[in-house]
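Hello,

Our lab assistant flagged a job as stuck in the queue for most of the afternoon. It eventually completed. Since we weren't sure the result was trustworthy after the delay, we are filing this so someone can double-check. Below is the sequence as submitted and the structure that was eventually returned. Let us know if re-running is recommended.
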Amino acid sequence: MWDQADALLLARLQFAFTVSFHFIFPAFSIGLASFLAVLEGLWLKTGKALYLDLFRYWLKIFAVAFGMGVVSGIVMSYQFGTNWSVFSDRTGPVIGPLMAYEVLTAFFLEAGFLGVMLFGMERVGRKLHFFATCMVAGGTFVSAFWILSVNSWMQTPVGYEIGANGQFLPGPSWAAIIFNPSFPYRLVHTVTAAYLTTAFAVGAVGAWHLLRNRANAHARKMFSMAMWMAALVAPVQIFLGDEHGLNTLEHQPVKVMAMEGHYESHPDGAPLVLFGIPNAKEKRIDYAIEIPKLSSLILKHDPDAPLGGLDSVPDADEPPVAPVFWAFRVMVGLGFAMLGIGLWSLLARFRGRLYDWSWLHRGALVMGPSGFIAVIAGWMTTEVGRQPYTVYGLLRTAQSASPLEAPAVGASLLGFIVVYFVCFSIGTWYVLKLMSKAPHAHEEGPEQGADTPIRTAGITPGPHQQSAPGAAE
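-- returned structure --
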């Protein structure tokens, strides 16, 4: 069945499939780890048991999501050696150390404190446990730091030298590589997106339980906290997205042309295309709904500023317009919908009806998955818009793939699809099951087995393992 297939296309589909699955879990766990740190900090500060109940409620969900994120991410690293060995060989001297730092710092930090965070509440002091929670939250941020530094270098490569064998070699300054031109914008925009993703997931769970019981104090608190995040962070995220877009225009103008649907150059001001159907064959947007000169006003802060179009770019250097065009609009549309929910919640809060407006709760419930959809759409905009390059302007995707035949790549792709859908469908079902249970007083944390030792090293047996007095006599 793979005789007529393209090995390069299958390799790209495989990586896109696995990274799409993986991305949704870190986007959730980054924000949720910080939310857990806030909840535990509020409990320590105020002494209110409600915060501890919410901490334990979301800790169980975090444990499952974190585990699925780790498992889904391991596969991606192997693909660099199997499907993208040429890319690994050419860029390894630059991106290899950065990815190693991610393991040596973030992964070890998370692994070192995760067990204390999950199971140490009754075994260590409150302050030490809070420190462990903060370290896990910090580890998720450090992980995002290094991974986004790698990705950003691929988007805006600087600080490198080309060796005699064609490899990218680090220049005299690693700081130039790590803090490449697009990295600060991408880091802040992505991490903020993770916080919003978590906020709307938490808000949806709170809204679900408020629709069932408006008097549930735990649901009220989580919904209120989530709506504060939506109201305050959504407008900030829109601003950050605009700044990221201006940075992209400076360093990757062709990507912006695809995002805006500008097949033609506009010397006297470019329109903002709201909707339309990209026609790659005719090089135009069919049925376009546009606002004259607004794109130039947004991107250049001048309605008459000229903007280039894809007619100024060789066809071989153009990204696929349709997926970039639509993914960008999905991301932006959901961003403004999040802002709308945040403003709606502020109105309800101002009128003292935050827990009574059922339509607000229904809206928040519908918007629960919006963050996940938005981050995937943003990823598609960034990565598909970078095509036809893996290292922008320097190394083409077609030059990066391993010399494999289509049947080999296709077989592994089918295997990934089957395994991922079976495993992660069960994991997702379990997370939704946990979310469907209303939080309550005296919430229990993650369960441990009956044979778990009470000491970390397992030297001192638990009470159930100790012999009764006189039993050895």
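-- support follow-up --
The delay was a queue issue, not a problem with the job. The result is valid. The mean pLDDT is 86. The beta strands are 160-162, 168-170, 272-279, 284-291, 389-391, 395-396.
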